[in-house]
Amino acid sequence: MEIVSSHQTDTHRAVYAIKLGENIYMLHTFKKKSKKGIKTPRPDMEIIRRRLKDAHMLAKEEADER
């Protein structure tokens, strides 16, 4: 899920991975800087993908501990 919020002239985005186990993981937030296009910048997508992988690993470890 992506949450987009506008504040004055800036656009802020938050990307969530929801409900991994019993936890909610905030993967990345950033200020959108591009004046054209709606795509999330590649460096931000790489951060999100890496953190999503880490979140899955943490959720699995937590489930294994139960």
Structural write-up:
This protein has 66 residues and is an alpha+beta fold. The chain is built from 1 helix and 3 strands, in the order βββα. It has one helix at residues 42-65, and strands spanning 2-7, 10-20, 23-32. The protein has a 3-stranded antiparallel sheet with strand order 1-2-3, covered by helices on one side. The model has no long low-confidence stretch (mean pLDDT 79).
Task: Give me a quick take on this structure.
36% of the residues lie in helices and 41% in strands. It contains 1 helix and 3 strands, in the order βββα.
Low-confidence stretches: none
User: Averaged pLDDT, please?
Assistant: 79
Structural category: alpha+beta
Helix content class = 25-40%
Q: What is the count of β-strands?
A: 3
Overall geometry comes to elongated
In percent, how much strand structure appears in the residues?
35-45%
The largest β sheet comes out as:
3 strands, antiparallel
Topology order in helix (H) and strand (E) letters? EEEH
Reading side by side through the largest sheet, how are the strands ordered? Answer: 1-2-3
Number of helices: 1
Radius of gyration: 14 Å
**Terminal Cα span:** 27 Å
Considering the chains and any ligands shown, give keywords for the structure.
single chain, alpha+beta, three-stranded antiparallel β-sheet, 36% helix
